[in-house]
Amino acid sequence: MNIDGIPTRTLRAHPERRAIDIIDQTRLPHALHWLRVATLAEAAHAIRAMQVRGAPLIGATAAYGLAIALGQRSDDAWLREAVLTLWETRPTAVNLHWALTRMDRIVAPLPPAEREAAAWQAATQIADEDVAQNLAIGRHGLELLRQLPRRQGSVLNVMTHCNAGWLATVDGGTALAPVYAAHDAGLPVHVWVSETRPRNQGLLTAWELAQHGVPHTLIADNAAGILMREGRVDAVIVGADRIAANGDVANKVGTYLKALACADNGLPFYVAAPRSTIDFDLPEGKDIEIEARDGDEFRRVHGLDARGVPSALQQLPAAEAVANPAFDVTPARLVSAILTERGRCAASHAGLRQLYPEVAGD
Predict the structure, then answer these.
(1) With the CA atoms of 95, 97, 98 and 103 taken in that order, what torsion angle do they form, in degrees rounded to the nearest 10?
(2) pTM score
(3) Which reaction does it catalyse (predicted)?
């Protein structure tokens, strides 16, 4: 996607320096800051601290993190430790475990001296595949958006939740891939962006949409229902952190509420994700581990003070009891369709198997 008109990926690999550069998303939307990651510990911290976010980008970062680790050491014990360290950074997004499993299968059988080079090659392949898959999601999603009726005027009004755009992937986005494809094709489109408390990933969505010139409006999470009720939304598209084999979808907390509001207002609710987000080994969404994050994410509000300096405001007493689940699960019955790089399917076991018939032999 574009930053100041320049096509840019969210991740830059430097194998000759045994490092990668990432956008520190904790500094957005107020500052664009590239961060050098050159050790296993730094890669694990980047994922855990949400300097990188979004299931596909987390997976790609973990893959490169393993390559970086093998530049430090490449013996069997260190390989196992590196995989485990990255594996345990975040529990819900399956792309993380998918990428590490794929990397381990490639490098573990090799002699230690050959592992680092093979890991860099495999991580780059994962990153390039992510870009290609997201572009394909965009093409399939564009066909869908063209067919949607528009409730108010000629502009198509799409709502999204959390950040499932360019910043959540290596490039292109998942839920926003069809939006970018529509905008670039000249289809009039406007995006309702929910703030997505408490980490405010919606602010990142608004930032990247602005960079690419896509019309959008940021809203409080609680405003989504009334906009649907007033006929100002034509469809909702979200990404996913894990999709169970039956079509249940885990995504950022608050997604379930939007799916319920869509059902009540007769609106389509779509989920866009690549193959790496589908967990065919998990029968139902009820078995997805929901990450519980630090309560201080809720107790404190981050932004800029009157001088434009980053600061944090304590909105609750430190001792106030809070719950901070990071994700929720939307049952398949509320999902109108799942969009992947292979096309569109029903949110069901049969629908997913139709798109991926080879999974029976996994």
Answers:
(1) 120
(2) 0.92
(3) 5-(methylsulfanyl)-alpha-D-ribose 1-phosphate = 5-(methylsulfanyl)-D-ribulose 1-phosphate; 5-deoxy-alpha-D-ribose 1-phosphate = 5-deoxy-D-ribulose 1-phosphate
Inter-residue contact 65 to 44 (CB < 8 Å) = yes
Backbone phi, psi, residue 34, to 5°: -85, 135
Please tell me which residue in 130, 171, 234, 241 is annotated as part of the active site.
241
Domain, as residue range, for 21:
2-130
The pLDDT value given to residue 360 = 58
Q: Which residues are annotated as a binding site?
A: 53-55, 90, 201, 251-252
Predicted local confidence at residue 143, as pLDDT: 95
22 and 153 together in one domain: no
Residue 328 annotated as catalytic: no
Question: What mean pLDDT comes out for the span 134-146?
Answer: 96
DSSP count for the chain of H helices, then E strands: 11, 18
Residues 6+ apart with CB under 8 A from 307: none
Tokens of 5: 């008109």
Residue range 33-86, pLDDT digits in tens:
999 999 999 999 999 999 999 999 999 999 999 999 999 999 999 999 999 999
Q: How confident is the model at residue 107 (pLDDT cuts 50, 70, 90)?
A: very high
Mutual orientation of helices 76-87 and 40-48 as an angle, nearest 10°?
A: 20
181 to 67, 134, 274, 288, 335: CA distances (angstroms)? 33, 11, 16, 31, 22
2-3/6-7 β-pairing: antiparallel
Which residues pair with residue 339 across a beta bridge? 272, 344
Contact (Cβ atoms closer than 8 angstroms) between residue 245 and residue 282? yes
Binding-site members for substrate are: 53-55, 90, 201, 251-252
Element (H, E) at 23: strand 19-23
* pLDDT at residue 361 tops 80: no
**Sheet strand arrangement including 278-279:** 278-279, 242-244, 249-252, 327-330
Verify that 17 and 109 share a domain, yes or no: yes
Tell me how far apart the alpha carbons of residues 195 and 51 are, in angstroms, rounded to a whole number: 18
Say yes or no: 162 and 93 in one domain. no
Residue 138 lies in a domain: no
- Within this chain, do residues 94 and 189 fall inside the same structural domain, yes or no? no
C-alpha pair distances (Å), 27 with each of 21, 127, 181, 199, 310: 15, 23, 27, 12, 9
